[in-house]
Amino acid sequence: MQATSHDVVIVGGGHNGLAAAAYLARAGRSVLLLEAQPSLGGATVSADAFDGMGARLSRYSYLVSLLPRQIVDDLGLQLRLARRRYSSYTPMPGGDSGLLVDNHDADATARSFAAVGAAADAERFDEFYARSGELARRLWPTVTEPLLRRSELGELVGDDALLRDFVDRPLGEVIERTFASDLVRGVVLTDGLISTFADAHQADLRHNICFLYHVMGGGTGDWDVPIGGMGQVSDQLAAVARAAGAELRTGARATGVEDGAVTWTDESGMSSRATARHVLWAAAPAVLDELAGSPGERVEGAQVKVNLLLSRLPRVREAGVAPEAAFGGTFHINETYTQLQTAHDDAVAGRIPSPMPAEIYCHSITDPSILSPQLQESGAQTLTVFTLQTPDRLLDEVESLPAARAQLQRATLDSLSSVLAEPIEDVIMRTPEGDLCVETKTTRDLQDILSMPGGNIFHAPLTWPWVDDDAPLQTAAQRWGVDTPYRGILLAGAGSRRGGGVSALGGYHAARAVLES
Question: How many C-beta neighbours within 10 Å does residue 46 have?
């Protein structure tokens, strides 16, 4: 068995592991990073999802909100992020109107609220997000600092009512107290349900935590489009790490981990052992638990992701709303408050929700560079559909993964077509072989391909970005939220205390903990 020695060994080559490698290599540490996949990037990759078609899609993750400017500046990243004009469009199920929230035209937005019978909610909508935005603005600067305690959060925010509504009580309570429209209530609740399976009144507040991360990024909650695709994030982090001297190995699967050492095999099956002063785990915590022989409770994601390549944008039912506006932000499909609750209850009973609640993002409207010149000239567009209230448990009883994938894809496309003026299949492009340009990734695909147990895109249930007053904060790992039950091993991925989303915070916090040790 080959043996090597390093200051730091990092397991996992997603954007968090790469960020940790970049920080530590630039600080003069010798770094070995091990990634099991043939390429780096994890969920932050771009790929030609449809061979030969000329569309390079953000295959898994798709928008950037939680990546702090400090990390971009520290590492000299040249990322370009584009702001979207429209926040969202939500068709009225079964009707010919919808709610268009236009960030550049408050009067048009107010008229749209009135058109869906929610005129009284327009001002409340602005006030609601101003309040949650105040919490976000106060909290956001703390994510690049050691963890706050809960009492320090209270002092920082200085508004007990704000904390009561968004931190202490189920999100459904403030939504129902604030808004009258079922449609508007649903638009707000979706911010708490991204890959988070929850009832609006769930006592564990997991949807409150998800909501906070959704509105917190940059202190504004804006979700921006990465120019060139999500692969730009991981590619640039990898380039910085390599330039600083980090050794980045792909096809390298960890087979054992302990204080001061990682054993791994390469693509040929050859085993190696790398010793180090620090071991950073930038993969899912549940995988670490399995290697350590102490598996915990089931980890579960709650989404299906469907990538589409279209000959053009589909028509919407509402006269006067251009597809470029409707799909210019987040397009909500069958996501009224009642529909989201019904979908949750269906899934609890083991049924695929019908209709499937989902939301759409169109990268190519904001950034056509991901399309070949020929596709751009033809008017082609991409759509990414991300379902809600579809937990991994729904796949338990399906006879095979291909069968489950086909069933979930059908339910998603049918739900989308139900709110359009034409079937979505009418505008989906076909490959030269005649196949529809549709790519569906279930929770099991994420588990099998990216080693995300249960397909949880956050690696583990999200946690508040602070700790209780009695939580131990004696060590650097504890102060930065990257400690594990295993001696000498730190978390450096999305499963760390504040690591969810495309933020690089898991890697940043782990690097800070190492440098302060």
Answer: 23
Burial (CB count within 10 angstroms: exposed 0-12, middle 13-18, buried 19+), residue 453: buried
Closest to 225 measured CA to CA, from 388, 379, 365: 365
Q: Can you tell me whether residue 80 is helix, strand or coil?
A: coil
How much is the CA Rg of the chain, to the nearest whole Å? 22
- In this prediction, residue 398 has a pLDDT band, given cuts at 50, 70 and 90, of confident
Q: HSE (CB half, 13 Å, CA atoms) of 469?
A: 6
Domain ranges in the chain?
2-44+230-299+459-516, 81-226+300-453
Query: Residue 320: how many CB atoms within 10 A of its CB?
Result: 9
pLDDT tens track for 7-49 = 999 999 999 999 999 999 999 999 999 999 999 999 999 999 9
Compute the distance between CA of residue 489 and CA of residue 483 in angstroms, rounded to an integer: 7
171: confidence class by pLDDT, cuts 50, 70, 90 = very high
Share of the chain above pLDDT 90, in %: 96
Element (DSSP H or E) covering residue 279: strand 271-281
The CATH architecture that domain 2-44+230-299+459-516 belongs to is 3-Layer(bba) Sandwich (3.50)
Instruction: Output the six-digit token pair for 65.
Output: 């909100």
Distances 423 to 408, 418, 419, 427, 455 between C-alpha atoms, Å = 17, 8, 9, 8, 29
The pLDDT, as a whole number, for residue 155 is: 96
Give the global pTM.
Answer: 0.96
Q: Which residue has the tokens 């989906």?
A: 428
The answer for residues whose C-beta is within 8 angstroms of residue 218's C-beta and 6 or more apart is 65, 68, 69, 140
Provide the 8-state DSSP code for 354.
S
Residue 156, pLDDT score: 96
The mean pLDDT of the chain is: 96
Contact by Cβ (8 Å): 484, 490: yes
* Pair 455, 445: CB distance under 8 Å: yes
Report the amino acid identity of residue 156: L
